[in-house]
């Protein structure tokens, strides 16, 4: 069985999204649930895929959206993890059978490319969406730019019954990535200094997680208004690095931290931020490389920035969604993860405007809603 719904379709690279109300969505099969979408966060990924920035290739037509949240309205045969009425946050897929998944490293799933960007579902088919009898491909196996999502249970994490679904979507990607990079990679100790470069959702997720773990945090960016927000929301120090060389940035960070930091999360993908932060990282320190970076050169092994320093490249925070999403939800309830302060709501049909506002920095975290009341 299936039903028709509204969804935002992308027919090719460098094209606009168009909303259609006749997209067919199939009922859930074994190990699947159907979710009525309440909210969907937007990050850099949707625009990057729209313009083929990363050259990853997508099948078309496709429905994007990878930070969905909503309420379970159907469960497939044999599903016990969820029941109708449960609130869920939707995140990245993982097969559950490869070596990485079997060892508890679901974020490193060997089949993630097929499940995320090739439009293939867990059954090896194009997925639950179609229009006029032809497949419409899914993204992240969720395609949350729609009214409903039929999704595998591996993609979903149950939220507390009293959690506000209007703000829940962004927990599935950006905030998860930043939080996980600190929680599972940098692992700061009490009173350690952590450098965080970048004040987007990923950087703020890293900030609040580091603070919750007892660390001191210096935020780095070239946008003073973002740094002011970071100071208001928990940062111990802030550095406006506009116009600085990597050496100057390193010197300033060493001064701020009193001789260097024990940890770092690089959330910009800019080589100068990478090198400037690493110059202030103590020997034995850990750097979580979170953002895409195209090229980075170190000239001298011992005098530049990589001698006896650990760098780990991050995917989805290098942490399971079922681990970090409940932690973020609990910290939010305690007032320690105030991510709602960064959110601006848009109606789903304002998708293009929300993406533009995120791209230009007008909005830190746009979230789409079906019901604006």
Automatic annotation (TrEMBL):
TM ranges: none
Regions annotated as coiled coil: none
Presence of keyword Metal-binding: yes
Domain Enoyl reductase (ER): 12-368
Pfam family, one: ADH_N
SMART domains given in the database record: PKS_ER
UniProt enzyme class: oxidoreductase
A GO molecular-function descriptor: zinc ion binding
Cofactors that this protein relies on: Zn(2+)
UniProt-listed Enzyme Commission number(s): 1.1.1.90
Tagged with keyword Oxidoreductase: yes
Highest taxon in the source lineage: Bacteria
UniProt entry keywords in alphabetical sequence: Metal-binding, Oxidoreductase, Zinc
Entries under PANTHER family matching the protein: GROES-LIKE ZINC-BINDING ALCOHOL DEHYDROGENASE FAMILY PROTEIN, NAD-DEPENDENT ALCOHOL DEHYDROGENASE
Family: Belongs to the zinc-containing alcohol dehydrogenase family.
Name of the protein in its database record: Aryl-alcohol dehydrogenase
Organism: Faecalicatena contorta
Lineage: Bacteria, Bacillati, Bacillota, Clostridia, Lachnospirales
């Amino acid at each position: 069985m299936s039903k028709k719904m509204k969804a935002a379709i992308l027919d090719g690279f460098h094209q606009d999204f168009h909303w259609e109300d006749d997209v067919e969505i199939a009922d859930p099969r074994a190990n699947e649930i159907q979710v009525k979408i309440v909210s969907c966060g937007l990050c850099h990924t949707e625009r990057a895929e729209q313009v083929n920035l990363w050259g990853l290739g997508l099948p078309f037509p496709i429905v994007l959206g990878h930070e969905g949240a909503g309420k379970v309205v159907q469960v497939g045969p044999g599903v016990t993890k969820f029941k109708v009425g449960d609130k869920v946050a939707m995140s990245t897929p993982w097969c559950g059978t490869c070596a990485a998944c079997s060892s508890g490293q679901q974020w490193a799933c060997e089949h993630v490319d097929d499940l995320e960007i090739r439009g293939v579902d867990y059954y090896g088919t194009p997925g639950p969406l179609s229009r006029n009898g032809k497949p419409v491909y899914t993204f992240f196996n969720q395609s949350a730019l729609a009214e409903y999502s039929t999704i595998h249970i591996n993609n979903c994490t149950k939220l507390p019954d009293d959690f506000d679904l209007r703000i829940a979507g962004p927990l599935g990607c950006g905030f998860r990535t930043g939080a996980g990079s600190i929680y599972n990679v940098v692992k700061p100790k009490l009173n350690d200094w952590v450098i965080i470069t970048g004040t987007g959702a990923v950087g703020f997720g890293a900030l609040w997680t580091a603070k919750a773990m007892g660390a001191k945090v210096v935020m780095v960016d070239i946008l003073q208004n973002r740094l002011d927000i970071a100071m208001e929301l928990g940062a111990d120090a802030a550095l406006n690095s506009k116009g600085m060389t990597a050496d100057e940035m390193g010197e300033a960070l060493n001064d701020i931290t009193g001789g260097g930091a024990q940890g770092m999360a690089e959330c910009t993908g800019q080589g100068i931020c990478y090198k400037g932060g690493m110059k202030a990282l103590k020997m034995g320190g850990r750097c979580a490389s979170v953002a895409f970076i195209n090229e980075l050169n170190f000239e001298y092994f011992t005098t530049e920035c990589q001698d006896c320093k650990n760098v780990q490249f991050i995917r989805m925070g290098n942490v399971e969604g079922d681990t970090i999403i409940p932690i973020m939800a609990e910290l939010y309830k305690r007032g320690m993860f105030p991510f709602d302060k960064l959110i601006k709501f848009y109606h789903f049909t304002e998708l293009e405007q929300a993406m533009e506002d995120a791209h230009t920095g007008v909005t830190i975290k746009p979230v789409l809603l079906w019901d604006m009341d």
